[in-house]
Amino acid sequence: MIVYDLGCSAGHVFEAWFKDSATFEKQARQGKVACPTCGATEVTRGPQATRVATGVSRDKAVKAAEQRAEMRQALRDLRKAVESNCENVGDRFAEEARKIHYGETEARAIYGETTAEEAKALDEEGVPVARLPWIERDDA
Ligand SMILES: [Zn+2]
User: Which residues hold their Cβ within 5 A of ligand 1, which is an ion?
Assistant: First the structure.
């Protein structure tokens, strides 16, 4: 919906809602847009900029942004928890996870990077791994 500030030939100014600008043009041409004060159908769009009514979608956008912020915070907390409780083994993750799983090294919580294929292979071998969305740190 678009709200237009309209002016009639007698100088009255009023607001009217239209589906879109084409609808306004069509209805104005057909004389279907009348001044609520004097009934004149000779109306023109005022000099003010048109405003697009986006109330509903703006609320949705705000809510979505808030949810994204909460999600980011949750992921940041998760990252912090992982970093302070687990050992970073970097790109040796798959190797270390296997060693731990097969008892070849000390059992401990580790984290690191691995490829999707490696993660799948670990999964198939029954090595318990979890994939986390890794968010960039604010101080990075
Ligand atoms: Zn009028």
Answer: 8, 10, 12, 35, 37-38, 40
Q: What percent of the chain has pLDDT over 70?
A: 86
H-state helical runs in 1-140: 21-29, 55-85, 93-101, 116-125
- CA nearest 100: which of 82, 131, 91, 92? 92
Domain ranges of the chain: 2-52, 55-125
Structure confidence at residue 57 (pLDDT): 63
Global pTM reads 0.48
How many angstroms separate the alpha carbon of residue 1 from the centre of ligand 1?
Answer: 23
Burial of 46 (0-12, 13-18, 19+ CB in 10 A): middle
Residue 27 CA to ligand 1 centre (angstroms): 17
Please, which contacts does 59-66 make with residues 24 or more away whose CB atoms are closer than 8 Å? none
Q: What is the 3-state secondary structure (H, E, C) of 97-118?
A: HHHHHCCCCCCCCEEECCCHHH
How far is 128 from 122, CA to CA, in rounded Å?
Answer: 8
